[in-house]
Amino acid sequence: MKIRVTTEGKSVAIDLEKKLGEKVFKAIVLQLLQADGMDQGQQSETLVKEQLPGTPVQIQPRARVKEKPEDSEEPSKKLGGAYTYKGFLYLKCPSCGHTRGFCTKKEIGGYHCELCGAYHPFTEELKQLQVNCQCGRKFEYMTNKEEKMFDINCIDCGGPVAVNYNEKKEIYETIR
């Protein structure tokens, strides 16, 4: 079991046996909740789920990610007031919050959520997402996420990789 603790500018990941990992995880959660000023009576399982960030979303790629050449074209075009994209996308549904990573070979002008069925056109430009996993794998997506920091699972080893928004470069990058 891998436990990762991430904050702005800092990250640590530790591999532990499953039983020990579960004990350490519960201890960390209790300490976080107590540091937040909660008493023991408020610490229900549902509250723990609400207080902690969601688990990283599993990404099932259909093809290998290729390194992007330096002289490649702009990833988006604007047609009729909406942007179009193709390639690897990591999108969050604005209606239900479901996050999904996928690859599209054809240009698309919006996102159809597989969970709630809502369709959302790309009215704003997506942000670049660069991920460098500890296993050595590197991959890129375009994303509509707005959070300053979140975890994304590596497509090879499945481990969570913490990414942070770099306002200067205007992209999401792996926290080192």
Low-confidence stretches: 40-54, 60-74
Overall 3D geometry?
globular
Report the mean per-residue pLDDT as an integer.
77
Radius of gyration: 18 Å
Architecture overview:
The structure is a single chain. Strands 3, 4, 5, 8, 9, 10, 11 and 12 form an eight-stranded mixed sheet that branches. Strands 1-2 form a two-stranded antiparallel sheet. The longest helix is centred in the N-terminal third of the chain and has 18 residues, at 18-35. It starts with a strand and ends with a strand. It has helices at 18-35, 45-51; strands spanning 2-7, 10-15, 76-79, 82-92, 99-108, 110-112, 119-121, 127-132, 138-143, 149-153, 160-166, 171-174. With 176 residues, the protein is mostly beta strands. The protein contains two helices and twelve strands.
